[in-house]
Write a structure and sequence with these properties.
- It holds the Pfam family Pyridoxal_deC.
- The structure is a single chain.
- Helices cover 35% and strands 14% of the residues.
- With 457 residues, it is of the alpha/beta class.
- Helix 5 packs across helix 6.
- The chain is globular.
- The relative contact order is 0.13.
- Bound molecules: pyridoxal-5'-phosphate.
- Pyridoxal-5'-phosphate binds next to helix 5.
């Protein structure tokens, strides 16, 4: 039925949702409708449409939170109206943000104590931009003080997430991405020397490489930069992109030295909405000491009443995710995070064992030492009889979202598959996935057409 055929004068107060005009005529897609519609009907129709999205509980591709306790839902609802930029109107939300900054700085062994400097962001991407900008401003100030040109900054990194490519392009910095060595899953220290020079604003080390889930060796990267400084005089700061590992390593690998315990680390970013277990929309950027954050980058905003320092790309932003992050830190505590993550890591390792036993796969990362995740590749892609892309499609028919993609530069011929085990993904669910993987492999490697499984052999 088209809209002009619908009797718009009818009182719809008692209509069934599916006989209202908005349901009968189809939802407007290009123009804002002229008339209002009953809220129950609009809700039902939008809700129905969203049901066609992938099932987030079966999304094993994302690092992001897909499950939260009912208390988190309640707090998010209660914070709907709170604009976290209005620190004067919502001082307790601002106070809660400051508490999170202190707790996270302390978790990462910040030497600044009560003077910890940092802020919440919309995620690691914004936090990375802020970290990168601070590196760029500090480098430029030093170059200018030395009377040297400061017009060709570069940033050195391994296989980074796209946010660093964005940073480089948006803020006019040359990105020197070091290619992967044949068997490496990330940047290796001995590669650095060839890429850094006097225009290097910093090196980015990744705690939890997006592609392989392995950690880059932050302490060894710093040691190599120490050696480079000793030999050449270049003093190059290190930023750690701990988007996922920042909320894993402190709990699962407390002995691993990757954070502010490493002198050369000047700033760290992490996503609260990944293993921080907060709902989508929050990240954190923390600087080693106040002098690591150039004051030109901090704006004093006073027209909302009171003078407040802000360092952010956004202005208005919801406060709920920050409050939910605080709730989660209090609710779980260090031991709670450890238990949830240890369970995830054990589940990842169990999946790794299953995958290894299936035959055609070689594990690239077995979930044992870094993130609770598994990645694998085909041992012999030419003889396997199927591709990982086909396997992704097969799994998708059961609702699983397990991505297949090529590795970054110099290893792009290697296609891999990756599963992330996070909060809300149980051992049982992962074993059901393993069953479906086995079934999919046997279907793909048998010659019978899939429409007639009963006639096979
Ligand atoms: C996810 C991720 C990002 C981007 O984080 P968002 O919170 O999604 O903006 C950056 N770096 C790494 C290593 C990541 O895993």
């Amino acid at each position: 039925m088209a809209l002009h055929e619908v009797d718009l004068d009818r009182d719809e107060a008692y209509d069934d949702v599916y006989s209202t005009h908005v349901s009968a005529a189809g939802l407007p897609k290009y123009r804002v409708p002229h008339l209002p519609s009953p809220p129950e009907a609009v809700y039902a129709l939008v809700h129905d449409e969203l049901a066609l999205d992938g099932n987030s509980a079966q999304n094993l591709a994302t690092f992001c939170t897909t499950w939260a306790e009912p208390q988190v839902h309640r707090l998010m609802d209660e914070c709907l109206s709170k604009n976290m930029v209005d620190k004067d109107e919502y001082p307790q939300t601002a106070e809660i943000e400051a508490r999170c900054v202190h707790m996270i700085a302390d978790l990462w062994h910040s030497p600044a104590g009560r003077n910890a400097v940092g802020c919440s962001t919309t995620g690691s991407s914004e936090a990375a931009m802020l970290g990168g900008l601070a590196l760029k401003f500090r480098w430029r100030r030093r170059r200018q003080a030395e009377g040297k040109p400061a017009d060709r900054p570069n940033l050195v990194c391994g296989p980074v997430q796209v946010c660093w490519e964005k940073f480089a392009r948006y803020f006019d910095v040359e990105l020197r991405q070091v290619p992967l060595e044949p068997d490496a899953t990330g940047l290796r220290p001995h590669q650095l020397r060839e890429y850094v020079d006097e225009n290097t604003i910093g090196v980015v080390g990744i705690l939890g490489v997006t592609f392989t889930c392995d950690y880059e060796p932050i302490e060894a990267l710093a040691a190599e930069l120490d050696a480079i400084q000793h030999d050449t005089g270049l003093d190059i700061p290190l930023h750690v992109d701990a988007a996922s590992g920042g909320f894993v390593a402190p709990f699962l690998q407390p002995e691993l030295v990757w954070d502010f315990r490493v002198e050369r680390v000047v700033s760290i970013n992490a996503s609260g909405h990944k293993y921080g277990m907060a709902p989508l929309g929050v990240g954190w950027a923390i600087w080693r000491t106040p002098d690591c954050l150039p004051e030109e980058l901090v704006f004093k905003v006073d027209y909302l009443g009171g003078e407040m320092p802000t360092f952010a790309l956004n202005f208005s932003r919801p406060g709920g995710e920050i409050v939910a992050q605080y709730y989660t830190l209090l609710r779980l505590g260090r031991e709670g995070y450890r238990r949830v993550l240890q369970t995830c890591a054990d589940t990842a390792r169990a999946l790794a064992r299953e995958v290894e036993r299936m035959g055609p796969f070689t594990l690239l990362y077995d979930g044992g030492t870094a993130l609770p995740a598994v990645s694998w590749t085909l041992t012999d892609p030419d003889r396997a009889g199927f591709t990982l892309y086909q396997l992704t499609d097969e799994l998708r028919m059961r609702g699983w979202q397990v991505p297949a993609y090529p590795l970054p530069t110099h290893r792009q011929d290697t296609v891999i598959q990756r599963v992330l085990v996070r909060h809300g993904i149980s051992r049982d669910k992962i074993m059901l996935l393993a069953d479906d993987l086995r079934t999919a492999v046997s279907r793909l490697t048998s010659d019978a057409p899939r429409e007639q499984p009963a006639f096979h052999h």
